[in-house]
Amino acid sequence: MAATLSRQKLLREWKLYFFVLPSLVMVLVFSYFPASSAVYHSFFEWAGGDTKQLIGLDNFRRAFHDQVLLDSFLTVSVLIIFNLIQMIPSILLAVLIHRLRSDRWQYIYRVLVVVPMIVPGLVRLFIWKFFFDPNLGALNGVLNFTGLKNVLVWLDHVFGWNVFFANVPIGWLSQPELILPSLFLWGFPWIGAVGVLIFLAGLQSIGQEVYEAAEIDGVGPLGKFIYIELPLILTQVRLSLVLLIVATLGGYGLQLQLLNEYGGPGGRGMVPGLWMYNRAFYAGEFGYACAIGMILFAFILLLTFINNRYVRIDK
Amino acid sequence: MSAVAPAVRSDFRRDWSKHIFILFFILIELFPLYMMFQVSFKDNSTFIRQPWLPSSPISWHWENWAFAFKLVLPYIANTVFVAVTGTVASLFLAILGAYFFARHKLPCSGLLWAAFLALMLMPGVVNITPLFMLLKSLKLLNTLWALVLVGIAGGQVFNIFVLRNFIEDLPRDLFEAAEVDGASHLQQVVNIVIPMSGPIIGTLAILSFLAMWNDFLLPLIVLRDQDLFTLGVGLIYLDGEYVKQWGQIMAAYFVASIPLIVVFLFTMRLFVRGLSAGAIKG
User: Fold this and answer.
1) Confidence band (pLDDT; 50, 70, 90) for B123?
2) Is residue A152 one of the residues assigned to a domain?
3) Predicted local distance difference test score (pLDDT) of residue A2
4) Does the domain made of B72-281 have the CATH classification 3.20.20.70?
5) How far is B169 from chain A (nearest CA, A)?
6) Is A225 inside a domain boundary?
7) CB contact under 8 A, A20 and B275
8) Which of A65, A89, B175, B209 has the greatest number of C-beta atoms within 10 Å?
9) Which of B30, B31, B40, B27 is nearest to B256 (CA)?
């Protein structure tokens, strides 16, 4: 019965397939084909030309002994931990804006949060690169002006880092020890406009009367955050955290532009995506680059799986 | 009126500590914009003497801006072509696809849906090596069409996913009435779906426009001729100059932001609302 019905429908509505056809063709050609091509070529030694040689699992064997790749996974794990900290200001800002009593001010701040988005991402990156400049950069200027530089030099003496010296400008992007701190610092205070707006949307369901009731019960500002606000935006926080982590794990544009294709001095900023890019487009080892891509893909898939399995995003 | 103003002011007084925190964050966030603007009017020696405060308007170096316009305008033209063509085509195809999934259960539509959803798990960056080889064999290297086509394909999954949910929630009676009147599917899309999903289409359009506007990894490996450079590659090229004229560079950055400023002026409300509303749904 059901079969005949769908057959009738098929005869009547077959033209509808043309609606989905263009999307399907685009996705097959530009997403599925490259993906399967990556799987296929990861078993080859391939310089990008017509000649390629089947070498089985050698690319993967090489990857597991590639010290640069192994270190890069360590670096990217640190960057992911940074992500956790970098989310806090956005949450804090959203909560503070939401707690304002005046709707007009809420709207004004919402717009002001969005304003920095008018700067293209790459320009933002380059302005920060300019801030990191040892002689002209704003970061060293602020540190000198506020006296924090002296604190850093003092800390250096205490802990023996050998990084900060009294009369030498700090080379944020040229000293290997400072590469990871710079990758952490850039974009301070890490306000993501989209994130703030999404958190605010989640907070919208809390009415003013809930706060008044909490005040009568003597709940302090921190208590309000833990018992009222955080539970309501937990879904959004988890969601944007997962998106951030996936983006960090696979991303390399930041490292490529802020440092260089070798991850800066000492390769301290090398991440797996950058090494893949480097092998493909600087060394011409396309087969090996595909293998690195597969390994990276496996990690991202594992992460997505863990997220779907254990971190349920409930509506 | 006189009753409202004191109320607002007393709200402000009670919330002043929050305002200070919020302003602190927002001012730091806006600091790069300020620096970009004031440095764009200085030459290197003025900038080194006084990096922080704007110089007086009499001694502003407008030639920085002239240089920036001359340099960046062709890049902007290329980027506008890529981002606008890509966004319009991507959304049009996505609306058709979403209509297919939302309105009718035809044989195989479940399978096709799974084929789209599976791509959500696939990170695009991992594909860049074989994608480059594909574009090479399609003779699309060093063309803007390569960026447009990849942009369209990349946007399909997310856009179809969001639009399908939205179209499914549209009242069924509308479509049935249109069918009784003999409207074809394409007419239903044009006359019902598109007018009724204006805000969500607007939000998706801004998001995909921004994504294509900001992309520089693909253009970096695809484009070779300087005539074809999009903003991303052009700015990277400028960053690679050996002796840096910071005033000129900052003016170029500012000019590069102007199209987005214009887009935001017209769509700020849509953006703030649309994103907030969309976030509640999904």
Assistant:
1) low
2) no
3) 53
4) no
5) 17
6) yes
7) no
8) B209
9) B40
